[in-house]
Amino acid sequence: MRVLFAVSDWPGHWHAMVPLGWALRAAGHDVRVVCAPSQTEPLTRAGLTPVPILDGGWDMALQGRLQNYVDARDGQWRLPGLPPHPVTGEPLASLDEFDMDAWFTGHHPRLVEAATGSTDRAVAFGRAWRPDLVVHERFSLEGPLVAGVLGVPSAVHLWGPCGPDDSEPGFISLPLDFSGAFDRYGLPPLTARTLTHVIDPSPAGVAPPLLTAERMPVRYVPYNGPGSAPPDLPGPSGRPRVCVVWGTSLTRMYGPASFAVPEALAGLADLDAEVVVAVTGADRERLGTVPPNARVVGHTPLHLLLPSCAAVVHHGGAGVVMTSLAAGVPQLAVSHGLDQAVNARRVAGAGAGRVVEAP
């Protein structure tokens, strides 16, 4: 059987699909992944076969910053100061520094061009390769489009406890069809009701509601990217271990004010606990001096780290939420919004952790 995966330009959205790709290949099926060129290396390192034919021009971080700008303009921004500039990511001194209407007017033709090219190339590849099944993540437009054009079954694979029927202020639960691809190929518009099958790796206690789709539950197998356990990180010591995890995407979308790790470390400094800080990139430079009971491990696959922990503090991202659930570790999520807020509320509602709103 030939199985076509379709993913967006954001690794956290397709990491949950990797174990299914492994299982299909181990069972003798052929798996190809339609993606943007930026995902070629991470997909190859994950052991899957990329088909890098999508444009990838509609960056997820850019989308998040645009939405945050709209929230600030409409008086719904909750963090101190202003959100970062939607395009540059630099701090804004005034909302007048960016003209949302002018930006969309100038960039809409490019968005339409990129979307048209991506959807047409995906359909052309589907017609040539003729998959028997299409599996796509929630922000992939090309997956359900190819399945609809070819008349083959498809399923959306969730990356965490947030589903296609969830709604959150400012949160877009499905991809935008800039080029009108579904209409161009004679298909009805993509809606949550278009998705008839949902592969859901969430435990039952945190699973999202589905209004019409058939849920296909699967066990969540953590995949947090390749890597090895730090050699100086042994098993549990005599003290409880607390892990503090922060995703780099948060500061890119919400700005430096969203980086709550220093406050978390200050709150943990007086505890008789071993604190492990998993941050990377520019966020590591923002840490400053860490307390004596804390150490920074940088990039470490969370499934190697969390089973030895007594608790985890994080930003509400689906990867850390799901890996923490798989490890049975109590969670404290600092919620900012979008799907992270949904994830955090479901964890708290299931009694698997607590959530606090970002200051």
UniProtKB/TrEMBL annotation:
InterPro entries assigned: EryCIII-like_C, EryCIII-like_N, Glycosyltransferase_28, UDP_glucos_trans
Keyword field contains Ubl conjugation: no
Entries under Gene3D superfamilies matching the protein: Glycogen Phosphorylase B (3.40.50.2000)
Molecular function GO terms recorded: hexosyltransferase activity; UDP-glycosyltransferase activity
Nucleotide-binding as UniProt keyword: no
Keyword line: Glycosyltransferase, Transferase
Domain Erythromycin biosynthesis protein CIII-like N-terminal: 22-56, 119-247
Protein family according to the UniProt entry: Belongs to the glycosyltransferase 28 family.
The name this protein goes by in its record: DUF1205 domain-containing protein
Native species: Streptomyces montanisoli
